Amino acid sequence: MDRVKNKTKRKWYATEALKNSWSVSILSHQIETKLYERQALLENKTANFDTTLPSPYNEKTKQMLKDPYIFDFINASTNLNELDIEQELINNISKLLLELGNGFAFIGRQYHLEIEEEDYYIDLLFYNLIVRSYVVIELKTTEFKPEYIGKLNFYLSAIDKYVKRENDNSTFGILLCKNKKKVTVDLTLKDINKPIGISEYKILSEIPEYLASTLPSLEDIEKRLEETIKTE
Fold first, then answer.
1. Which of 37-51, 80-94, 163-177, 212-226 has the lowest mean pLDDT?
2. Residue 131 burial (C-beta neighbours within 10 Å; 0-12, 13-18, 19+)
3. Of 122, 139, 131, 130, nearest to 174 (Cα)?
4. N or C: which end of the chain has fewer CB within 10 A?
5. Helices (H), the chain
6. For 1-23, what is each residue's pLDDT tens digit?
7. Is residue 9 part of a domain?
8. Are strands 133-139 and 118-128 parallel, antiparallel or unpaired?
């Protein structure tokens, strides 16, 4: 925690560490991978939870969303397809659950639904104990495309109809993609009535570049130094 100078960030990490019973090594990992920037800063997230979920579940669900998700346990020098990445996630399920956050329980991979004699397979299905909701996660190895949302929206409706129990809250979805463009994503979600969040993900080979991009620029550092000198 000594490396976290900002008081707000220190308090947030301390609260999360107590709430999730993090060890010192896990806390250090969360700081190194910029968890505060990825989870606590709501303006960085892309989701329609405010308009599709009732209060207070909309806020709780938005708070647990991250962008990007860091899969530093997937180490690959070549391009992996979606099934390969899914398998790596399941092979490292304890690390995946840590990255997803508090309250996630794994239900299944390629979760099977049969609807009108047609077979459908959900990439990853979870249940979140905090908001009492099923969570559908769809994984894409490409940039976000609007058509991805139609399929995810269908899966959410199917889980709500055939799997969700009476005391469960609405199922929500997380679409994980390699990258996304804000205007395209916002327009796609605008009239969708199912709760969906869209986030990027990074595997090990991509993490150094991501972390470097989150560091302050030289201009930012100089500006902060000038402001500090003026206030002394």
1. 212-226
2. buried
3. 139
4. C
5. 7-20, 24-32, 35, 49-52, 57-64, 82-91, 93-100, 147-162, 182-189, 207-214, 218-231
6. 656 878 899 999 999 999 888 99
7. no
8. antiparallel
**Is there a domain that residue 89 lies in?**
yes
Beta strands 169-177; 196-203: pairing state: parallel
Query: Where do we find the tokens 């959900």?
Result: 122
Question: For 148-200, what is each residue's pLDDT tens digit?
Answer: 999 999 999 999 999 999 999 999 999 999 999 999 999 999 999 999 999 99
Q: What residues make up the domain containing 89?
A: 33-231
The CA dihedral of 181, 126, 150, 179, to the nearest 10 degrees, is 20
Q: Is residue 10 part of a domain?
A: no
Number of domains in the chain: 1
CATH classification at residue 113? 3.40.1350.10
Q: Of 107, 191, 196, 201, whose CA–CA distance to 148 is shortest?
A: 196
Average of pLDDT values for 128-155?
A: 96
CB count within 10 Å of CB 92 equals: 16
Interval 110-129: pLDDT, tens: 999 999 999 999 999 999 99
Each as own residue / partner, the long-range contacts of residues 107-112 (CB below 8 Å, 24 or more positions apart, any chain) are: 107/134, 110/86
